[in-house]
Amino acid sequence: MVWWTTLIGSVDRARRTTLTFGFATAIGIATVGPAPAEGLTDALVKAYQSNPQLTAERARQRATDENVPQALAGYRPQLVASLGVGLQQVRNLLPGNTFQSDTLKPWTIGVTVTQTLFNGFRTANSVRVAELQVKSGREALRNVGQGVLLDAVTAYTNVLANQALVAAQKANVDFLTQTLDITKKRLDAGDVTPTDTAQAEARLSRGRADLNAAEVNLAISQATYAEVVGNPPGKLSAAAPIDRLLPRSREDAIGIAMKGNPAVLAASYDVDVATTTIRVAEGALLPSVTLQGSASRSRQADSTLGTLGTDQASLIGQINAPIYDGGTAAAQTRQSKELAAQSRSVLDQIRNQSRTAAIGAWVSNEGAKIAVSAAESEVRAAEIALQGVGREAQGGQRTTVDVLNSQQDLIQARARLIGAQRDRVVASYTLLSAIGRLDVQTLGLNTPDYLPEVHYHQVRDAWHGLRTPSGQ
């Protein structure tokens, strides 16, 4: 029958369009076009360089670095200069019940240097706490960096998948439109009934609704891409899984995650912070030794009595031993111990979560491989089924609704394949993130790696200066 030959030609063209635009993009076969396409690595580089969440976390880490010079200040002398100027009205009673009045103009200038020699090891332990906070913060920064890169991968593949789905739905609408046109002509010829036409119209309406939903999802994914990467998506090139970077077994994934997941490492450093904070609190119960040197000069200007002045210098050592402070130091020590216990429980929790995440990511990645293979088989079978239904319809053994149902099965199979291919890529990157290796060096991104150690060494031993190393 001519009507089926025309329609199946449309199906073949739609299938080729969908495969070229959708599946090739989703599974990693680059398409050729006049405009250069943005690759996944390009998107990852942009996100790594300019994502606001990541840049904010870097600023937080730089602020954390400043805890170390603040703690080191406890080793350094404190220098204070003072200047006092005033007016003093004087009235003296002299022999013979006479009075002498005058206005004095006293002034004093001095300098005091205080050096702490011992404070119950609080300075040393405070420095240790600050350094551990820096290490914990670096792991937290690395964790945020992994999250941003994974968000970029997800946003990128979502755009690719939704572009492919829109193309598939457009091809479906074209198929259903031609089906309706042919059905109307066959109705005029008396080959079908009005029911067939109504069924074709209903399927076309559904197809247009599905196309609209796909276009909405594409617009949302494009907005998310711009939020994460920093610019709207243009023409995107292929995205492929990264199996070569992944562990070979589930046990390997768990072992690597326990040692390298940044969330686990950050929580481990937090335990050390809390433990050392106990010693800082206990230091308040120990004696302190300070050495203070001062020099001053004072003068009183009096036009009648002359000028009186004093020059003074002193060097004083002082030992303070706390006897009772109302229970503050004891309460702070007990509080620090409870916080340390909390941090150990949090570490156990995060280790369990990381183990679960590694297992889940491994299983999801393996499952995604199977899902892609199954979806590809489903698409091939659905295409064969549509061809067979068409031939049977041509011989009068099938109706128009049978053809429409078979086409619907095919479009759903293609949508599942596109989704499975998208999940396959995301699952591989998710597994790399779960084991703590989703970073610039592992991925080989063409951008300098942000090194928080650089800022740390710039400010660690700074004795003065209000400007940051970046000039703020």
UniProtKB/TrEMBL annotation:
Signal peptide: none annotated. InterPro entries: OMP_efflux, T1SS_OMP_TolC, TolC-like. SUPFAM superfamilies: Outer membrane efflux proteins (OEP) (SSF56954). Keywords: Cell outer membrane, Membrane, Transmembrane, Transmembrane beta strand, Transport. It is found in: Cell outer membrane. Its main location: membrane. Transmembrane segments: none annotated. Pfam families: OEP (PF02321). GO terms for molecular function: efflux transmembrane transporter activity; porin activity. It comes from the Bacteria. One of its GO terms (cellular component) is efflux pump complex. PANTHER family: OUTER MEMBRANE EFFLUX PROTEIN, OUTER MEMBRANE PROTEIN TOLC. Belongs to the outer membrane factor (OMF) (TC 1.B.17) family. This is Outer membrane protein.
